[in-house]
Amino acid sequence: MANVLVVDDDEAILAALKLLLKRDQHHVLLAKGPHEALAALQKFTIDIVLLDMNFTHDTTSGGEGLDLIGRCQQFNSDMPLVVMTGWGSIELAVKSLQQGASDFIEKPWENERLLNIVRTQASIVQQKRFQAALIAENKLLSEKIATQKTISISSRSPAMKMVLETVQRVAASDLNIYLSGENGTGKSMLAHYIHQLSPRQNQQMIAINMGAITESLFESEMFGHVKGAFTDAKETRIGRFELANQGTLFLDEIGNIPLGQQAKLLRVLEERQFERLGSSTTIQTDVRLVSASNANIQAMVADGSFRQDLLYRLNTVEIRVPALRERREDIDDLCNQFLVAACLRHRRPQPELTTEARLLLNNYNWPGNIRELQHVIERSLILCENGKIDADILMLDDVYNSTGLADQSLYDAYSNSTLDEIEKNIIEARILQQSGNMSKTASSLGLSRSAFYRRLEKLQIR
Fold first, then answer.
1. Alpha helices, DSSP H only, in 76-217?
2. How far apart are CA 221 and CA 316, in angstroms?
3. Which of 232, 345, 404, 452 has the most C-beta neighbours closer than 10 Å?
4. Which of 141, 254, 253 has the alpha carbon at shortest distance from 204?
5. Res 413: pLDDT
6. Quick check: 172 and 198 in contact, CB under 8 A?
7. pTM for the model
8. For residues 255, 258, 263 and 269, what is the CA-based torsion angle, rounded to 10 degrees?
9. Sign of torsion over alpha carbons 336, 342, 347, 348
10. pLDDT category, 377, cuts 50, 70, 90?
11. Tell me: the pLDDT tens digits for 388-418?
């Protein structure tokens, strides 16, 4: 039921408690004093500590036990501590509880009472873990729903067919995969597709945009934190590595990971273990890592802004996702797919794409790739009349004016939109105007890079 650490200098008591607790289905670790106890806390994940209050230096005051309580809490402030002594007193019981102990028991103990105390504390530990996981999962609910959708990817393009063949071969392994390619080429969808094909498909896939995480919150977001780790840490929070345990962790825009934090990520990838912020307890992790970036990571390695050893860990297999202009054979199918989806979303009858419109769509250069194509189709659906999308409705010659909106007619079409919808359209328009360059887009909007990526995440712009 629980991992229980028993700390006592009497070997007979250690043996008796080990036998009693193992019969109650607990996993028991033994320590003969504070030094061994702290070493065990450093090495193992402990749920409950059952500790004596007096050791070799002092036999009556409980001072050593009180000191050990404080040092145990440095590892995990939420870990239950049950203290026991043969020199019990009300004063010592009060002191131990004030110091942070969860309960107090006198020697010799009653077996059933001791077991009830351990069972109660084990139940509390499980509830706290469940609550922490639930809070974290609720924050990622929309992302989780997206990962659970069944994805089917097919292609007529030789370039994309080669990508899909590679994905089919490597998805069944546990190799780390790095997806490179321009903005808007579908790297995020391909990451979810890899998870769907993997042996981990029934476990969590956690996706995180590294550009949306500030350097000060990096450790808390990735590794979690314990209550009291910093000023605003009012409750224990589970990080992304812990949430993705046994599943897949997708790190998008890895080029935005601050250089100072790259070593911490490298350590987790090498040793498969980490500590929550504010805790010394080591947590083992088992995740399959998929990462992506539109940046030239090799150039970043050359200029010293990205660690080469981290790149080696991330790109065991590198898959380059082709730009849309390199897979023109797929444009017609993508247009049909986006048009059907847009009609369902906006509850409109499906219009016809004229021959002239399809010709223009197939010959346009698509600097914004699939994301731009999707945006153009959706906008054209809103503006079209008489059940047809003509070439002039696509507005691909001069797609955006200096305000980031196509023209007054487009503004009128969204005159009843919510603020979030308007903001989303403006940001998408500016991304296309800047040919998918996120740094230039953020700068042109007067936003910091982290603030810009937070808006992308909030508005679900991929």
1. 90-99, 111-139, 141-148, 158-170, 187-197
2. 25
3. 452
4. 141
5. 53
6. yes
7. 0.62
8. -40
9. negative
10. very high
11. 999 989 988 644 333 343 444 454 555 667 7
Instruction: Give yes or no for residue 91 having a pLDDT over 80.
Output: no
Written in H, E and C, the secondary structure of 157-195 is CHHHHHHHHHHHHHCCCCCCEEEECCCCCCHHHHHHHHH
Asked whether the beta carbons of 208 and 227 are under 8 A apart, the reply is no
Are the CB atoms for 319 and 194 separated by under 8 Å? Answer: no
**What's the length of the chain?**
462
Provide CB contacts within 8 A for 390, sequence distance 6+: 354, 356, 357, 384
Nearest-angstrom CA–CA distance, 15 and 38: 20
Residue 9 to residue 47: CA distance in whole angstroms:
21
Most confident of 155-164, 424-433, 434-443: 155-164
Single-letter amino acid code for the residue at 105: I
Interatomic CA distance for residues 133 and 332, integer angstroms: 43
